[in-house]
Amino acid sequence: MRTTSLISVGCVCGLALMMTTSTAGAKATPQEIARLGADLTPLGAEQAGNAAGTIPAWAGGITTPPAGYKPGMHHPDPFAGDAVQTTITGANVGQYADKLTPGYQALLKTYDTFKMKVYPTHRSASMPQRIYDATKRIAPTAELVEGGDGVAGAVNGIPFPVPHNGLEAIWNHLLRYRSDRASRHIAQAAPTRGGDYTLVEFDDEFDVVYSQAGQTEESLENKILYFKQAVTAPARLAGGVLLVHETLNQVKEARAAWLYNPGQRRVRRAPNVAYDNPGTASDGMRTTDQFDMFSGAVDRYDWKLVGKQELYMPYNSYQLHSDKLKYKDILTPLHVNPEVLRYELHRVWVVDATLKEGASHIYKRRVLYIDEDSWQILAVDQYDSRDQLWRVSEGHCINYYDVPMFWTTLEVHTDLQAGRYLAIGLDNEYSMYDFGIQRTKKDYTPAALRAQGTR
What's the CATH number of domain 30-454, 2.160.20.80, 2.50.20.10, 3.40.50.12780, 3.40.50.300? Predict the structure, then answer.
C-alpha cells in the first residue's frame, strides 16, 4: 500500500459558474419553467450533450427493460458490451485531475491498488411521466420555508428543477423519486484493514408517500416517507427494528424515530437517530445522515451552490449489482474491488456544505456531487475539524428500469484515515427489491413495530 498525506480543504477548482449562500430562494420564473422539456429535461438537467461530445444528449433515459428481464430478477446490464475507454491510477491521476473530485484524487494517491475504469457515458436516468408532469406543475409554487429547513407548495415532483441555491439543490435530492414503495434484503460490511468482515443483514421497507399519485400537500401530513429496518443477522444483533418518519418541514416537526429492543421487548423513542450519531451496526464508519448519501435535517450546515462540473462519477453500476458476483468478489482490503466498478463522465451540481457557527457535527465540511439527470447524490467528500479530507462516499447507481427510477445499488464510505470502508446495500446473493408491496400508515406506527418485534 502506498500512502500520502491527506488533502487539505481548499477551493474546488473550475466551479465558478454560480456562487450563492442564500437560504431564501425565489420561486421559479415563467421563463425558467418554460425551459423544462425544452432545452432542459423535465427535471431541469441540460438536455444537450457537451461540446466535446463526451457526454451525449439526454434522450429520455432507459424506458423499457432489456429483453428477457422479469420482475424480481437482478437487473441485466444494458451496457455490458461497452469497452473501457481509459483506466485512471495513481500513476496517471494528474492527467485527469480536472475531471476528478478531491476525494477520488486522494483514493488514487493513497492506494496503489485502487483504480477507476472509465466507460462511455450513458444518460440512463428516467422517471415516470407523472413525476415529470408534477415537477412542472409545482415549480411555480414550491418554496423554502423556515429558513430553508422545510419545503412548502410541493408534492410528487422535484421542487426546484432550476435551483437558485444549495438548499434547493439538497432538497431536490431529499425529495427525488425513489419509487412509491419498496422492500429489500441487503447486507452491510465494514472490512478490517486486512479484509476480514462480518455481514450485517437488514430487511428494509420504504413507503415514499411524497411521491405517490393522488397525494396532496395536506394529505402528506408533513411526511416525506416512512422507513422500517429490521436487523436479521448476525444473531447477536438480530431482532432490533428501527422505524423512522421523515418530515417535510423539519422545524414544524422533527424526524420521529423509534427502536424495538429485542432484549427488553420494548419500543422506545430514538431521538439520536439523526445527524452524526453512528449508523445502525456500522462500526462507527458512517453517520446516520450519510444514509442514502445524505438524509435528514439540513439545519446544521450552510449550503452553497458552487455550480456544475463535468466529473467522473459512479454510474450504471450493473456489474457491481450482478447476481453473478459473490460478496467476497466485492469486499477487498482497504477499498471495494475496482475491477467491478464503473465510472462515467457526467455533469453534476456541486454543493459545498460548511458547518454553521455553534453547530455540532463530526464533519466540518461536506462537498456533495449531485447528478443533474436524477438529483441523486453520486459522491461526497467529507472533511474533519482539522480541515483534512476524511471520508469519501460513493453512490453506485443503476436505473431500476422496471419502475423506472435511478437509485443506488451500493453505497461505499471509505475512511482514508483508518484505511477501512463501509459498504451498505449488498444484494448480489439475495433476492431483488420488491416494488409492489402494499402498506398503509398503520404499518408504520410504534404499535405495529412492537407487534413485529414480538412475533
Answer: 2.50.20.10
